[in-house]
Write a structure and sequence with these properties.
This protein has two domains: 104 residues, Rossmann fold (3-Layer(aba) Sandwich), CATH 3.40.50; 192 residues, 3-Layer(aba) Sandwich (Rossmann fold), CATH 3.40.50.2300. It is built from eleven helices and 14 strands. The strands form three sheets. Strands 2-1-3-4-5-11 form a six-stranded parallel sheet, sandwiched between helices. Strands 7-6-8-9-10-12 form a six-stranded mixed sheet, with helices on both faces. The chain has a two-stranded antiparallel sheet with strand order 13-14. It is globular, with a radius of gyration of 21 Å. The protein is 35% helix and 18% strand. InterPro entries: ABC-Purine-Binding, Peripla_BP_I, PnrA-like. This is BMP family ABC transporter substrate-binding protein. One of its GO terms (cellular component) is plasma membrane.
Length: 385
């Protein structure tokens, strides 16, 4: 999720993402490289039929914290438990989204890993480059939108669970001010902020969502400071789209209800956790590993949500009124049946411009190129460097 290029790449190429549920599209070719092709692929040992499949996971942040990488690592452990000695797994963590990512990916391929999961948006270009050098290695890139002959991508419809979280926050607030700590203004993050706001306003039309941007996916110090800033602005329910548990910890210290992201952060906020928006990768990882073992792996693009059990709102506080729980449950059931879409018009942005007419449902292309904040969100989008 490299902040220097994420937003431009997302707007330029996100519309090209074709979802598995809508039918597969021939994968685009990886960008051409200058100079002679690398010979690194020759160095990658070929597994014998009796050898375990070597699988690698690359994380952008620590895997032992409550956060983005932790949730992927939970699924990794589930896969190891399922396949046992049929697979041999390597994990690397704290890999920044720069030249280090390319180096580490190349090392993992040279070590004989035949399936590599690169679990952060900013790894995208590095994945494409290294994949071209190792055509016999399968690469899976999380939250990206580009594919190649040996590169697939996958993500969750996080905005669906965000909408449910908004209902919970909107029904809980007393000040009518909700806080949101956000990393970068790319479509994925804007979907979450907007869906959260729409969910909150569906139960409390008077709410206002205030956003503090950290300009980083993983920076606990900035995340904590952003939380304190929102508390100073009278936000009495706070959520986040960042990768550490700092927001939850700061809310616990200040005794402010928090809706966590990535994992249900019970350790960080044992008394103030209102709920958790999580991703669920277990079945997906197991399925992709099995596909490589079966020889059926293809460079698909997956964007799964509530119906696919890839996102959820969990651990709703026991103090939540039953009427609120029932409302969230009813909305979840409609999403599961694809009878309800959070981005259904009429929707206007926070400048008063209509973005969806009454009854109009946002297309995936609309979502993947989202560049606005809905009515109810305070402030303007920051500019990307």
């Amino acid at each position: 999720m490299n902040k220097r290029f994420a937003f431009k790449l997302a707007l330029a190429g996100a519309a090209a993402l074709m979802l598995t549920a809508c039918g597969e599209k021939e994968a685009p070719k990886a960008p051409a490289q200058s100079g002679a092709p690398a010979k690194a692929a020759d160095a990658a040992p070929q597994p014998k039929a009796s050898e375990p499949l070597k699988v690698a996971f690359m994380y952008v942040s620590p895997a032992n914290e409550e956060g983005w990488s932790t949730q992927h690592d939970i699924a990794r452990r589930a896969a190891e438990a399922k396949f046992g000695d049929k697979i041999k797994v390597t994990t690397v963590e704290n890999i920044p989204e720069n030249a280090d990512a390319e180096r580490v990916l190349r090392d993992l391929a040279q070590q004989g890993n035949k399936l590599i999961f690169a679990t952060s948006f900013g790894y995208m270009n590095s994945v494409l480059k290294v994949a071209k050098e190792f055509p016999d290695v399968k690469f899976e890139h999380a939250t990206g939108y580009k594919t190649a002959e040996n590169v697939a991508n996958y993500s969750g419809r996080f905005y669906e669970a965000r909408y449910l979280a908004g209902k919970l926050a909107g029904a809980t607030t007393k000040t009518n001010i909700l806080g949101y700590v956000a990393a970068l203004p790319i479509p994925e993050v804007l979907q979450g902020i907007n869906a959260f706001t729409l969910g909150a306003k569906s139960v409390n039309p008077n709410v206002e969502v205030r956003v503090v941007w950290t300009s980083a996916w993983y920076d606990p110090g900035k995340e904590s400071d952003a939380t304190k800033s929102l508390i100073g602005q009278k936000a009495d329910v706070i959520t986040h789209h960042t990768n550490s548990s700092a927001v939850a910890a700061a809310c616990e210290e200040a005794k402010i209800p928090v809706i966590s992201y990535n994992t249900s952060m019970k350790r960080a906020a044992p008394t103030m956790l209102l709920g958790g928006v999580i991703q669920i990768w277990d079945s997906f990882y197991e399925g992709r590993i099995q596909a490589v073992m079966d020889g059926t792996w293809k460079p698909q693009s997956v964007w799964g949500g509530v119906p696919e059990h890839m996102v959820a709102l969990v651990d709703i506080a026991k103090t939540t009124p039953q009427s609120v729980v029932d409302d969230i449950k009813a909305a979840t059931e409609k999403m599961e049946k694809r009878e309800f879409h959070p981005f259904t018009g009429p929707i206007v942005d926070n400048t008063g411009k209509e973005v969806l007419k009454a009854g109009q449902v946002a297309t995936d292309s609309d979502l993947l190129t989202m560049g606005y904040l809905v009515e109810g969100v305070a402030g303007k989008l920051p500019t990307m460097n």
